[in-house]
Design a protein that fits this description.
The protein is an alpha+beta fold. Helix content is 23%, strand content 50%. It has one domain (3-99). Strands 1, 2, 3, 4, 5, 6 and 7 form a 7-stranded mixed β-sheet that branches. The relative contact order is 0.24.
Length: 132
C-alpha cells in the first residue's frame, strides 16, 4: 500500500472540503495567504488483525493558520466536519476511518506575515486508516 498515493488522493479530496483555503505539506510558503492548513506526517503504521489483513494508519497533524481567532476557529470547524469519523473512497484510496486524537493546541504566533504582526494557529492530530 502506497503512502504517497494515500496522501495525494486524500489531500486532493480534503482540499475540496475547505472552501478555498490552501493545504500545504509541511511548512507553508512565507508568502502564503491566510487562512491555510499545513499538514505534517507523524507516522504511518500498520495494524494487524486476526485474519492477517494489514491496514495502514497514517497519523497526520494539521496546523490551521488564520489572521484572527474567529477565522482560525471557522477553518478548524470545517476541517473537523470533513474528517471526524470520515470514510469513503477517493481515487485509488479507500479511507476506513478518520479519528481525532484527544487534545487541540492553540498557539498565537508572533510573526510578520503579509504585513501583519501576528496570526493565530490551532493544531489537531488525526489517525486515518486506509488502503489503496
Amino acid at each position: 500500500m502506497s503512502y504517497a498515493t494515500f496522501t495525494s488522493d486524500f489531500i486532493a479530496w480534503l482540499q475540496t472540503q475547505l472552501s478555498g483555503a490552501m493545504i500545504y505539506a509541511g511548512l507553508a510558503p512565507a508568502n502564503a495567504a491566510l487562512p491555510y492548513v499545513a499538514y505534517h506526517p507523524i507516522g504511518n503504521d500498520a495494524d494487524y488483525c486476526h485474519d492477517g489483513e494489514n491496514l495502514p494508519t497514517a497519523v497526520l497533524q494539521f496546523d490551521i493558520d488564520a489572521a484572527t481567532p474567529t477565522a482560525c476557529a471557522a477553518l478548524f470547524d470545517a476541517l473537523n466536519t470533513a474528517l471526524s469519523g470520515h470514510s469513503g473512497t477517493h481515487n485509488a484510496t479507500r479511507i476506513f476511518s478518520a479519528f481525532r486524537q484527544p487534545g487541540t493546541f492553540e498557539q498565537p504566533i508572533d510573526a510578520i506575515l503579509n504585513g501583519t504582526l501576528a496570526h493565530h494557529r490551532l493544531s489537531v492530530t488525526y489517525d486515518i486508516s486506509y488502503s489503496n
